[in-house]
From TrEMBL:
This is Protein SCAI isoform X2. GO terms for biological process: DNA-templated transcription. One of its GO terms (molecular function) is transcription corepressor activity. It comes from Callorhinus ursinus (Northern fur seal). Residues 1-34 are annotated as: Disordered.
Length: 577
């Protein structure tokens, strides 16, 4: 199923009266509900300072059209169930309003990857919880009302996950557990198993991280993996890079047996976080010295638009690709992230074209062999929902940045840049050492390196917990490593210019430095000894100047020494394989 959302949709004001079980108000008073919802949204967390007046008007207009469309649609039920002509005018009015609503959504793109909208949703859901709008539901013998309450909890949990409010998530999960237990005890309904599965999924989701960071009192520290102001290495004087910026991202997930919640796998969630900026309150920024003049007003930092596609069919995926490609602004980049099962070629072929190396499976509608890999040896036709490298050729007419996390990621090594536009593919290892504890259900190690490189480094070093003080010390050292990697890339004389074209964007710069850190770490690790254990890229990086650079290797060994795990790494990879 496709979740083509750039972010969760604006909370709808129609929920408010229904939560209390009150009678519907007359249509002429519907605007008051919209105003109430907007007041709840804007009243906390400094959201009003971050949302311009024009955008608030957009939300108000949207809510009005939404309420009007529902009013007309519900009115159709009261029409007589005979005759034909008397229906036509009512259908016409209803269709016209729905058409206006659809056009309004297309024009204003209410789902925009703006973190401020997530904060609004959080404020709205928090108000429902704090004011106990659902308090009377459990006293009524109406299971459909209880289901609405359970759905509210599920939506609230999704918003909190996306905002990285894990402490609130844990409280909500406990409350949801109690509500589900009460629901299953009171009503003998068919969806009891499904709601218990939802609870299991979210519990596994929040425990997916393989390493815990602990305070002195052993409480767990909630770490953020969004792009902070000091997150990406700064561009220093003399660094010559391109001026491209990341505008759109398609995050596609179809990994078997991987933990997920609400059609969001762990890998998808981690990549989503890696493509988000840490929220910045403009009001507090304006209070800083030297920021009083209007000319010094900080600019709003844009997040790339994102489509979250969970198990999309080929036609669905191509539709979203085409839409992003069409709307991509000038001097902008489209990022495609694929976390999916590998599809291997059926046998030897006389040619070696872009459809002869297999690809990745985006929709699992067939039997899976061994839980991970699709083999089509006994069938002459290719898998319908396999995304081959050749399928992406039309979109290389514009700058394209591809990340493939799959057991057949190497299929994308055989790319051809037909149009001369910047093109880079970052490819995961196709297999991991057997000695490494299998954590595939809790997310891919490669994606973890791109999202939280220090946590991934700790995991491959055999550590499962760490004190906060040491964590912060290692994070500071890792920032130094990233700065040095940036210098290695920009000073290299043999690196493909495509890497430098993307290096001007903060998100892509951080992904590239983390990719090189990941590759260098795995090449130095004692149990990563096979070629298929290492990440690769298209175009290839010059090894001696990047992933096998002695200066970078020295840094990795120093980080291992800080953690007292130097024994799991080689002193050098020179001539080792």
């Amino acid at each position: 199923m496709v979740r083509g959302a750039r972010q969760p949709q604006q909370p709808r004001s129609r929920l408010v009266p229904r939560l209390t079980g009150t009678v519907e108000k007359p249509p002429r008073k519907r605007k008051s509900r919209t105003e109430f919802a907007l007041n709840e949204i804007m009243s906390s967390g400094g959201a009003e300072d971050d949302i311009p007046q024009g955008e608030r008007k957009t939300v108000t207009d949207f809510c009005y059209l939404l309420d009007k469309s529902k009013q007309l649609f519900n009115g159709l039920r009261d029409l007589p169930q005979y005759g034909q002509k008397q229906w036509q005018s009512y259908f016409g009015r209803t269709f016209d309003v729905y058409t206006k609503l659809w056009k309004f959504q297309q024009q204003h793109r209410l789902r925009t990857s703006e973190t401020s909208y997530l904060n609004e949703a959080f404020s709205f859901y928090s108000a429902i919880r704090q004011r106990s709008y659902y308090s009377q539901v459990n006293k009524e013998d109406r299971p459909e009302l209880v289901v609405k309450k359970l759905r509210y909890y599920a939506r609230f949990i999704v918003v909190c996950l996306l905002l990285n409010k894990m402490d609130v998530v844990k409280d909500l999960v406990k409350e949801l557990s109690d509500e589900i237990e009460d629901y299953t005890h009171r009503f003998n309904t068919e969806d009891q198993v499904e709601w218990n599965l939802v609870l299991q999924e979210v519990a596994a989701f929040i425990e997916a991280d393989p390493v815990m960071v602990l305070n002195d009192d052993n409480t767990i520290v909630i770490t953020s993996n969004r792009l902070a102001e000091t997150g990406a290495p700064l561009l220093e004087q003399g660094m010559i890079v391109g001026q491209l910026s990341l505008a759109d991202a398609l995050i596609i997930g179809n990994c078997n047996n991987q933990v997920k919640f609400s059609e969001l796998t762990v890998d998808m969630f981690r990549m989503l976080q890696a493509l988000e900026r840490e929220p910045m309150n403009l009001a507090s920024q304006m209070n800083k010295p030297g920021m009083q003049e209007s000319a010094d007003k900080p600019t709003r930092r844009e997040n790339p638009h994102k489509y979250l596609l969970y198990k999309p069919t080929f036609s669905q995926l191509y539709t979203f690709l085409a839409a992003s490609f069409k709307e991509l602004p000038a001097n902008s980049v489209l990022l495609i992230y694929l976390s999916a099962t590998g599809v291997f070629p059926t046998g030897r072929s006389d040619s070696e074209g872009p459809y002869d190396f297999g690809g990745v499976l985006t929709n699992s509608n067939r039997d899976i062999i061994n839980g991970d890999t699709i083999h089509k040896r006994n069938q002459s036709h290719k898998e319908m929902h396999c995304l081959h490298p050749g399928d992406l050729y039309p979109f290389t007419r514009k700058p394209l940045f591809i990340i493939v996390d799959s057991s057949n990621s190497v299929a994308y090594k055989n790319f051809t840049n037909l149009f001369g536009q910047p093109l880079v593919c970052l490819l995961s290892p196709t297999a991991y050492p057997k000695a490494l504890q299998d954590q595939s259900q809790r997310g891919s190690l490669f994606t973890l390196f791109l999202n939280n490189p220090l946590m991934a480094f700790l995991f491959v070093s055999g550590l499962s917990s760490m004190r906060r003080g040491l964590w912060e010390k290692c994070q500071e050292y890792l920032r130094k490593i990233n700065r040095d990697i940036a210098q290695l890339l920009t000073h290299s004389r043999s690196i493909d210019q495509a890497f430098l074209q993307f290096f001007g964007d903060e998100f892509l710069r951080l992904l590239l430095t983390r990719f090189i850190f990941c590759s260098a770490t795995m090449r130095m690790h004692k149990i990563f000894r096979e070629t298929r254990n290492y990440p690769e890229s298209y175009p290839q990086l010059p090894r001696d100047e990047t992933v096998e650079n002695p200066h970078l290797q020295k840094h990795i060994l120093e980080l291992a020494s800080i953690l007292d795990v130097r024994n799991v790494f080689l002193e050098s990879t020179i001539d080792d394989y």
